[in-house]
Protein 1
Amino acid sequence: MPNDLAISLSGPQPVVNLLSTASLRHLLSPKLLSARARPLGKTENRVGRLVLFTAIGGIFWLMVFGLLYRLLRYFRGIPEIGALLAGKLLALTLLSLLGILILSNIVTALSSFFLAKDLDLLVAAPVDWLRLYGAKLLETTIHSSWMVVLIATPVLTAYGISYEGGFFYPLVAIAAMIPLLLIPSAIGSALTLLLVNIFPARRTRDILSVIAVLAAAGVVLLFRLVRPERLARPEGFRSLIEFISLLRTPTSSWTPSEWAAQGIMSWLRSDAEILPFYLLWSTAAVAIVIGAVLHRWLYMRGFSKSQESGERWVRQGPFGRLVARALTPWGVMRRELVLKEMRLFFRDTTQWSQLILLAVLVVVYVFNIKFLPLRGEGITFFLQNVIPFVNLILAGFVLASIAARFIFPGISLEGRTLWLLRSSPLEMRQLLWSKFWVGTLPLLVLALILIFATGILLEVSNFMMAVSVFTITLMTFAIAGLALGFGALFPKFNTENAAQIPTSFGGLILMMASIALIAIVIVLEARPVYQYVGTQYLKETPSVMGLWIGFGGAALVCLAATFIPIRIAIRRMKELER
Amino acid sequence: MIELKGLTKKYGSFTAVDSIDLSVPDGELFGFLGPNGAGKTTTLRMIAGILQPTAGSIHLAGIDLSADPIAAKSKLGFIPDRPFIYEKLTGAEFLRFVAGLYGQDGDKVEHRGRELMALFDLEEWADELVESYSHGMRQKLIISSAFIHRPDVIVVDEPMVGLDPKAARILKDLFRAYVRRGHTIMMSTHTLEVAETLCDRIAIIQHGKIRAVGKLSELRSESAGAGLEEIFLKLTGETAARDAMEVLDA
């Protein structure tokens, strides 16, 4: 036995004081230390990235702040209803953020309370249940709320400055926002705890499907209750009094977002009310206490269950057999690559959890299109044709975010199995193209459904429908190509969680490139569309050359954006040494 | 001391661990052998308090794990088969964190952490982020973390995976020295040579049931003096060599 071994095992036996077991701060310390160490990591162009992130964040903040500030100054100039409109706008904004927070907390709680890799270590240690709950609740709150806080900051700043909230206004806003973040976190975590206990074993996919349906239904219901489109059309009301009475009515008296809006607006009107803050903080306290009690009763059972394999036997279903048969003419290697991609996707619950957010995004998008006020006074023939064209930009954004979620991480997720792929007689070209098609075809189907659904709701002309289908098809290919290309250029091979890949630096660059692509395509097509709509209105014949240049140019840009990134990605993958 | 009574774990209709009764006294290094999927890891994870048993009880150092999990877990050190370490912590920070989970900090913990890292040749890496560690280095760090709080009982799943010969030797010496001081180790392994040279007693588990338990000499005498490999293959119904030939001929 080496001498140093004796030293290691020497010393008195520990007397564990249970009251001094890991504190909440100690449980959170790895996350804090990790956050501190992250900028010190061996990442390339760290300063460049930091500058870029800061610049983009700054521009976003300034834009939100500038727009809202102007709007609020305008509201301040309207007697009687100005303050009501500002209050209503704040209530609606906070209600939307509350909806996003609940959904985001459910998904995050599943990961932090049940799937996180550090849980084995923490649960095996003598950690007090309440401290574990507190640490994981705080972790869930921070993970699911940071983006909402980033969005809310310029909004609340604009309110404070335009209504001259004074020196203590930031404290008032913080006092309203903290419980607004804690309530959905406690509720979301409790709901996840119940769902994990109700569903058999590791059926997270089932749980998430239920959440997706509930969330989509909830969002639709929320919008139906609020009917925001009515506020945009005051002429739809029988009288000004009816309009004012709608503005005076709380969006929903029982939602914390309404209390927060009331609390903030009462301060800004120099008529500070305590009740909204009392309601917010007491509700947050009750939610956390109920969450803690549920955690004590159900957590260990749920955590134990969450480790059990839900599906021990996985058989190929009829769809899988059909795809396998359909792919047979393309050769065994391509067939197996495509089947592997499909199987991994459908069996990876972390991927599925992201579908929820996207499903809600699409539902909200279509729903908003349905209720756009496109009839009535001031809505011209021209506007009726321009809005479907603008719709293409929004559809492009939706596609870009989906591609960033599902196609972009493809190469990064291959990291741990790259040794297998690289040591096999597989060409990187085949791997990348199989990833491209597996990602692009569902994206194209979704894009076409979106365009047809919104086109029918908007009652677009045949010409605009044809333009929309043509453009969205090309854009889908281009965005998928960009996603794959940037995925290979900025891989994150060592990530723990697939959901973190789209929010990486490469993901940000991809989103910027996608926005640039959409802008170029829309600018190229805008002129021929404008000309065509104008000539239709004036009953003239449009210039064929103009149409060819515009649409041909857009097609060329899209094809270049499809093929060039994939070529770069193939070269990059061949050079990669891991 | 580890005591398992009627320990059972079911996943739906599948019984992973089937009513195990086992007692590992103080000062014993106990080996847990069995083929893949036999129920070794499930048993060890139940002892570590990570999985809840469907039935039965677990006592660690005389404390009922289900009745007083905090007190029972404070006696335990667990080394899982697929360990997770925070990538963005340094080795020293990780050890400090684990000690803190057991309510320990201060100079003694720092000293002990440094010694454990030195023992496994990790002292130069103490302030490097774990993300830069090799697989073997991570394994050494995890093993160090199981000793940092001086547990009474150590439960370890496949400890030798990824270790170089020197580290494997140190670990064997460490385990032996540890049990000589009256502590308990329960270890699962596929390396029969390790079980043969290291363990005081061995249990062989298959399909969730204990097929045999006892000292190696006792198992040998029951199997007409056969080696551990023969005993293992006989008890677990493996006909490895014949199967291998058939596969090659297929």
Protein 2
Amino acid sequence: MARAPQIDIMRSPLGRARGLGSARAGALHWWVQRLTSLALVPLTLWFLCATVRLLGATRDDVVSWMAGPLPIVLMIALVIATFHHLQAGLQVVIEDYVDQGWPRIGSILLVKALCVLLALACIVSALRLGL
Amino acid sequence: MRDVRDALMVARDSDEKLIRRPLSPHLQVYRWPLSMTLSIGHRITGVGLGFGTLLLTWWLVAAAISDDAFATAQWFLATPIGLLLLLGWTVALFFHFFAGIRHLAWDAGYGFDKPWYERSGWAVVIATVVATVLLWVVGLAAW
């Protein structure tokens, strides 16, 4: 007698196809950390050069520098990549050391909120300086 | 026994006496290799750079607000404390930068052989020192 076909996997075919796992995020967090770090390699080098050039600068120097098309775009790109990378990294650190439950969820949300606000403050400032 | 997990820790020795099984060795029994320093250093500098973003935000926001606010920020960065913070920020940034590139190489599947593991570790340390010194020499000359 032929045996009936048997399914050994507890996950649904749709769940397997989506590949997101029980956290429903898949490898997204890991991937975000890698992508942002890759973006930050050239951006950081540019930022260091810009910082050295702006040492002891007056506010007018900063304004005229930021008014160029390249600095304002790269500065905003740097800010976005930096804070995106920062919140992803700090989340992992918190998950490793802070107790499960409200302390963990609370501190992660707090860190993410701070990162968003700081990033927005930087972007608005760059726009005010450069536009 | 207060916890179910303790049941796994209890056994009998050769005299049939109840004993607690020994724990597996933890951090303190290993000699401290470079890779451990670099690993925790990557995390510490990452968190440190998080605080460093406050400096960047202050500088940008001050520049956007007024001449006075920007002058205050520039003045603070030139004080001994400000310079010390900037030095720490530079070291942390270069370390995290080079150690991060090492991590990206691992993610791509390269550099896991033991000799390369050691070499790339020392390369991170040396590159951090050289880049920091270089940037400060150039920076102080341009200031």
